[in-house]
Amino acid sequence: MAKEKTKSDEALALERVVSAAREVHAASIALEAHFANHDSRQPSTLELARFAAAMQELKDARQAFDDLVPGNSEPHC
User: Fold this and answer.
1) This prediction's pTM
2) Are 75 and 66 in contact (CB under 8 A)?
3) Would you list the domain boundaries of the chain?
4) Cys bridge to 58: 10, 20, 68, 69, which one at CB 3.0-4.6 A?
5) pLDDT tens, 19-46?
6) Distance from C-alpha of 26 to C-alpha of 54, rounded to nearest angstrom
């Protein structure tokens, strides 16, 4: 039963990584759209904060996943 729990924890951690990666992608697309329009204004604080928060969540999710999975201790940027 412990092995099933571990798989479940690993699956949940991986889902968190995937969700965070999707949010980074969405925030990135929003910033790219801003710059593609050749808009002279800077991106809003909200747009930048969304991207920064998404990147931090992805970093945290990857670290949590790495902590759960033995032998997956690759250094991250």
Assistant:
1) 0.78
2) no
3) 2-68
4) 20
5) 999 999 999 999 988 888 776 778 889 9
6) 9
